[in-house]
Amino acid sequence: MHITDHINKAAGKTLFSIEILPPLKGKGIESVFNGIDPLMEFKPAFIDVTYHREEFIIRKQADGSEEKVSTKKRPGTVAICAAIMNKYKVDTVPHLICGGFNKEETENALIDLNFLGIDNVLVLRGDNVKHEKMFVPDKNGNKNALELLEQIQNLNSGKYLDDEINEATASNFCCGVAGYPEKHYEALSLDADMAFLKRKVNAGANFIVTQMFFDNTKYFNFVKRCSEEGINIPIFPGIKPLTNRKQLVGLSNIFNIEMPQDLTKAVNTAKDEDVKQIGLDWCVQQCKELKNGGVPVLHFYTMGLSEATKYIAQKVF
Fold this sequence. Notes:
- By secondary structure, the protein is of the alpha/beta class.
- It has a single domain (3-316), classed as Alpha-Beta Barrel (TIM Barrel).
- It has eleven helices and ten strands.
- The chain has helices at residues 3-10, 30-36, 77-88, 103-115, 145-156, 190-202, 216-228, 246-255, 261-268, 272-292, 307-316, and strands at 15-20, 46-49, 55-60, 66-71, 91-97, 120-124, 174-179, 207-212, 235-239, 297-301.
- The chain has an eight-stranded parallel beta barrel, surrounded by six helices. Strands 3-4 form a two-stranded antiparallel ribbon.
- α10 (272-292) crosses α11.
- The protein is globular.
- The chain starts with a helix and ends with a helix.
């Protein structure tokens, strides 16, 4: 079922959803299930599975030379989506990224998803390779999420990369894109960021999932601004509780988000053993306010861990 169909079926009720990581290479699927099982009582409408691009390591050879080797620490997104659907009968949303794929590889991944009955995707550019200051697409790859979205929409129209394919079966992907209430870190301004988001919506995006935030005013202002710009597709707030003191600075720096002054003060003046509860209580109140504000979905970035999300969901749903 399309994510938008879930929203329509809910008829205004706020849905619960989660995002998980594929396990590190060498770990089994049970590590995924162990992170999902405790949350099934809240009936997630869908489960996102992130995709992690290749990284490069330098490996020394027997003759003393060095070789640059591509490796993926968290493979298996497509297979994990299929396994989750088979076990839990819940729709999954695999992330699709530009980095690490050329357009033909992207098309083949989409064909696999279509064969498996996975008809939702979250369309992202993806991160830079660690040693690169700016994002560099693969040769013949999509340069950004807009180009990737356009490729998916072509497939939805039965248009494949090979022009000689005639009377092709069209796919039927429901496409989500990312939104940034506090601006993407590479965007020159909020106006520029909003303009790019509108281009993605005009290209066929069906829903928006936001970057995490800790101040609900940022989300509500973002939704209002989207409406003013003619963006009227569902916007899901991305939620992550703060669970330790280091995240106060770490999350802020990594995701270019501003921590509320009250939360910062509470964490900085608390004992170490009290910080997690402060973060959980903050998130509970944040989720209650968002739910009362009529958000279509509360989307939790669980990172494969269920304890904090379960605590919050018990208080909110």
